[in-house]
Design brief:
This protein is an alpha+beta fold. Helix content is about 40%, strand content about 20%. It has nine helices and eleven strands.
Length: about 325
């Protein structure tokens, strides 16, 4: 008879199946597979940390370093693609400065089951569920839990990641989580403040020659702007996006605030300085490319598909 530890693992394990989207592609890099599994484990450990802090009354911790140590265990591995039952190592799970007794089997079983049901296999296609998760966790907690989970999806290019909860015959395809849910739950950076331009704008520079009062009134009502050329899109910590041709971005100034806009992609951001506005524009462009340009068509509206087509036409 097998040991009780293994039986306990099997009793609560969820099924993870990573398989190639292209059935002819039967090879996967060991490093990529390991990275996806480690990110999945990090999401679980961060969930344990956040939940354990709340149980102890520790609120709004800013630390992103896991304060709970634990492992996910592969149970009864089956290498059809990669398929295994995944369960928590309840003997080795402990909070920082505490022992494994902090997570007895009944407690960890409940936490792990909740993680599988409410995080891993949640119906992210329903906006109500996504909003419920957003309200349940703070922004920092969402970044800690969902950040590594959704990074797993980014690493899964060319593969599908299927998760089945214990006793469930239905598998959730993590790689098909809508980008709207990803953006809602993992606001990686503060969104650039958008200021809608008014009908009346101040000129960027005084006119070279004195104008009549009537001409000055007409000039004040006319939008004054300049154009800047961007040859590539750069965001800190990300590879640059090289453009096929320089991107002509319109620059307006309103009450000392710089407005950068590219209306073909419905992009418009602002900054207190021109440098700040340009950085905000490049971040907005990169975010649009990542969340719309790289999204499956089936998850996009007709207008979003046109934007996707437009942004991809600009990139080498």
């Amino acid at each position: 008879m097998e040991n009780q530890y293994l039986e306990n693992l099997r009793a609560i394990a969820f099924t993870l199946h990573i398989k190639p989207k292209n059935r002819a592609d039967q090879a996967v890099a060991v490093g990529l597979l390991a990275e996806m599994l480690l990110l999945l484990q990090e999401s679980y450990i961060q969930y344990l940390t956040v939940t354990n802090n709340k149980r102890k009354g520790v609120i709004n911790t800013q630390s992103t370093r896991p304060e709970v140590t634990s492992d996910l265990m592969m149970v009864d591995v089956n290498f059809e693609g990669f398929k295994a039952s995944i369960a928590p190592d309840y003997l080795g799970t402990k909070a920082k400065g505490a022992s494994s007794m902090d997570f007895p089997l009944p407690v960890l079983k409940e936490l792990f089951t909740t993680f599988v049901q409410e995080i891993l296999t949640a119906d992210y296609s329903h906006s109500e569920k996504v909003m419920e998760l957003g309200d349940r966790f703070t922004t920092e907690e969402r970044k800690r839990i969902f950040g590594p989970l959704f990074k797993t999806i980014q690493k899964a290019d060319g593969h599908e990641i299927l998760v089945s909860a214990p006793g469930s015959g239905k598998a959730l395809n993590l790689t098909r989580i809508p980008q709207a849910a990803v953006q809602e739950l993992t606001p990686s950076k503060e969104k650039p403040k958008v200021i809608r331009p008014k009908k009346v704008r101040l000129p960027m520079a005084p006119p070279p020659e004195p104008a009549s009062e009537e001409e000055q009134e007409e000039e004040a009502l006319a939008p004054a702007y300049a154009m800047v050329l961007l040859h590539k899109i750069t965001v800190a910590g990300e590879p640059p996006i090289v453009l096929k041709r320089p991107l002509e971005v319109r620059v307006d100034v309103e009450d000392g605030v710089y407005l950068y806009s590219y209306h073909d992609l419905e992009l418009e951001v602002s900054g207190a300085t021109q440098e700040e506005a340009e950085k905000a524009f490049q971040f907005a462009f990169y975010s649009l490319y990542e969340h719309t340009g790289m999204e499956y068509d089936e998850n996009l509206t007709d207008s979003a598909k046109q934007i996707k087509k437009g942004i991809l036409s600009l990139i080498k």
